[in-house]
Amino acid sequence: MYRKFSSRFLTGIVASTLLIAGGGEAFSQSAPDAVSRPLEKDADVIRKGRVDAPEGDGIQPSQGVTLFDRMGADLPPLPPEKEFKGKIDEAYGAFQRGEYVTALDKALTRAQAGDAAAQTLVAEMMSRGLGIASDPKTAAFWYGQAANGGDPAAMFQYALLLMQGRNVTRDKAKADEFMRKAADAGNASAQFNWAQILVSENPGAKGLSEALPYYEKSAEQGVADAQYAVAQIYVSVSDIGPEKRAQARDWMLRAAKAGFDTAQLDMGVWLVNGVGGPRDYNEGYNWMQRAALKGNVAAQNKLSHLYIQALGTRPDPVEAAKWYVLSRRAGMKDLALEDFYLGLTDEQQKQAIDAANKFRRS
Fold it and tell me: CA separation (Å) from 125 to 137, 138, 300?
């Protein structure tokens, strides 16, 4: 539903410029367009660790309950559901069930009476062509009505329209006003975008200082781009306190686990270089490989170095050459890797090219 205003995290301000030891030139990474990126199907969730009992305390690990123990046994009663005392929104309920015509009918009646939430729903359905033919211009009208009525989601969407001048007159001042209001009202995407605006318009420490609280709020709501930004600011800005600096790797890990390939790349670099915590070559290799498999060119380049230097993996000249070929085809030059590649046998080069030709992004 939401789209991102700034297509890139502001490189050169807090971008990562870390080197893998012996790995060639420094590189910086920018966040791609994807604020509301869905989690990967294999994305890690919070795990509860296991505590081993000290010897001699008589505590034994549970053996579990077998299938035969469970057969015919009465299940414990479910906890009672809390009584819902809020107002039932029939329009949104129908929308969530996929009953778009019904949802539009119910929402339109309320929208015409000035209900901001209903106006947002009407705008969303019209913009996406759900229950009605797509009508971006009328959708923009309803987003404007809902934004003026104080709906945070509508304020964010309307700010995007005003920035781009899509079906409305372009008005940056009004766009900034609605983006800020949406951010202050708790919209996670607006918080990230408003932080981007603050950094863009206030280069240096002042902009980062003003933007950080919005990045943090957005990160806490699960926006991977914001989590990445918080991690980079925590580790890169000199006046960040030690308690926040110690959390930098945790935020980078959250963004990486959410499937953000740039964060996966930087997580790999941080682990290999020992940034924000101890070195871990094996985990560094694993994160680098994830990003490379997604087509991240910088990760493909750095993964080649890991194979050459046997960091976190066995040395493999053909695999190293394969990743170099892929990154070179994408336009990333690396003289050290080119020298390595030219030093391979003709058969090894052929195998690497064949492997690169067969590569498919995961």
Answer: 12, 11, 41
